[in-house]
Amino acid sequence: MRLPSSIFVSVSLFTAETTAALYLSSTYRSAGDQIWQGLTLLFTLVPSVLVQLTLTFIHRDLSRDRPLILLLHILQLGPIVRCLEAFCIYGSVGCVEEPYVSITRKKQMPRGGQSEEVERQVGQAEGKLFTHRAAFARTSVIQAFLGSAPQLTLQLYICVLQRGVSIGRGTLMVISLLSIVYGALRCNILAIKIKYDDYEVDIRPTAYLCIFLWRSFEIATRVVVLVLFSSVLQFWVLPVVFLNFLVFFLYPWILFWQSHSPFPENIEKTLTRVGTTIVLCLLTFLYAGINMFCWSAVQVKLNDPDLINKSQNWYRMAVYYMLRFVENASLLLLWYIYKTDVYQFICAPLLVLQLLVAYAVAIFFMLVFYQFCHPCRRLFSSSMTQGLWDCPSLLCLVCGSASPQSGPVGKAVLEPSAPNEQNQETASDSTGDIPNDTTYDVLNDTIFDIPNDEVIGTGGLNGDVGHCVSCDA
After folding, report:
1. How confident is the model at residue 199 (pLDDT cuts 50, 70, 90)?
2. Do residues 431 and 469 lie in contact, with contact meaning Cβ atoms separated by under 8 Å?
3. N or C: which end of the chain has fewer CB atoms below 10 A?
4. SS3 sequence, 116-147?
């Protein structure tokens, strides 16, 4: 059983960022900057409350007699308690005989065109650890893009206005950037394990390194561009941010309405239609928040039973990065035209060039990851370079001179199916039963983390076979 290190990292980033934000808000209060104090506290407490609600919802504490745990969540100490509980479960493994045994079946990565299926038994304690890992994977994404990203943007904006970086502000900015990158990394790992749920996925350190560098350059560049633009055109930044957010928020709903699919009813049995709508709105709200700063590896698809699009769409990714690069370049150009005396000691052309090169470096590491370091690249129906090379052919569909035979080709490029279609069709069926008090519903299995190395099937000693899903980044 793996050490729950991902839980420790999530709690450490959450605690460090909250502590640094509270200290920095106290310094703003001492200096009389009530606006900066209020915004700093807002971007700290709102995601903290959402994290507590997420942990409470996933562990179903409201339906269980656990008043002490609920009190600690109200005091915003829920993540620390959950972390201690997870390590206690990990330490107790092997000390007590497991009353329940689950059998998981996973395929190994094909070698020589063949893929072997491996079975292993998993006890109830490992199923409980899965619950904690999945919960903290969700909270890491929420904390990163609904708290850390706005916090980093705010503090960098204050640094530009005050022409200096204090120790407290610099510390909070570094922690916030690490939190955002970690949340984006979890999105990438989640996307891999959702799409290839039937396979035993082994993510190597080189893959983690590529994702870390890719996300670091992408997010840092995006934040700096937004801050520079907002420092010279304060009122115009609001329409830019609102338009970006609105497009990504409405995009999944537009696709859902065009599909003419029935309204999702299988998210949570206890939820009413209004409650289901609220949950879906929160999901698309988070999806929009992620795409504001970086590419969301997990694509929301409301007409899918799992709410996640399992196909690999190179075209959509290429369009996103091309449009984002053009947008960043346009915002930097406007900043260069309207820059004030605040930047008189900065070489503006060099700064613009550095930011554009940094974003290009992020794209380079993304290409390296998908081409060489992706753990499931052997299952790709086509390589990423081939998929991106085929993307310009879609432009021919706009031309009136396109041949009639180009229709099927365009459709194939627009929706390239991931390899092994049978595995994708059965992926939603692999989130089956879970040991007794770690029961899950579809929402808990799909929104933020679908582990792939661990089982959540129930089986007693009678040898019933369950389905597996795993998680540990």
Report:
1. confident
2. yes
3. N
4. CEEEEEEEHHHHHHHHHHHHHHHHHHHHHHHH
Give pLDDT, residue 326.
94
pLDDT in tens, 21-41: 999 999 999 988 899 999 999
**327 touches 239 (CB < 8 A):** no
Q: What is the pLDDT, as a whole number, of residue 122?
A: 64
Token pair for 209: 């390194």
312 C-beta neighbours (distance < 10 Å), count: 24
Q: Yes or no: say if 190 and 207 are a contact pair by the CB < 8 Å rule.
A: no
Q: What is the mean pLDDT of residues 388-397?
A: 52
Q: Cα separation of 371 and 377, whole Å?
A: 7
Task: Tell me the range of 124-128, 158-162, 225-229, 314-318 where mean pLDDT is highest.
Answer: 225-229
| Start-to-end C-alpha separation, the chain | 13
- What's the rounded mean pLDDT across residues 270-292? 84
- At 293, the amino acid letter reads F
Structure-block tokens of residue 116? 């072997």
Give the long-range contacts of residues 376-385, CB within 8 A, separation 24 or more: 376/109, 376/192, 376/195, 376/196, 376/199, 376/201, 378/109, 378/110, 379/109, 379/110, 379/196, 379/199, 379/418, 379/419, 379/420, 380/312, 380/418, 380/419, 381/416, 381/417, 381/418, 381/419, 382/416, 384/314
The residue to which tokens 């930011």 are assigned: 355
What are the backbone angles phi and psi of residue 457, rounded to the nearest 5°? -105, 155
Q: Do 351 and 364 touch, CB atoms closer than 8 A?
A: no
Residues 6+ apart with CB under 8 A from 252: 284, 287, 300, 301, 302
DSSP state of 401: T
Higher pLDDT, 158 or 101: 158
Residue 287's closest CA among 252, 333, 327, 313?
252
| Spatial CA neighbour of 122 closest among 469, 472, 473 | 469
Confidence of residue 394 (pLDDT cuts 50, 70, 90): very low
Across 166-191, average pLDDT? 92
pLDDT per position as a tens digit, 443-466: 344 333 433 343 334 333 333 333
Our CA dihedral for 351, 212, 295, 188, rounded to 10 degrees, sits at 180
For strands 299-300 and 117-123, give the pairing. unpaired
In 345-405, the DSSP E strands lie at: none
Integer Cα distance of 219 and 359 in angstroms:
9
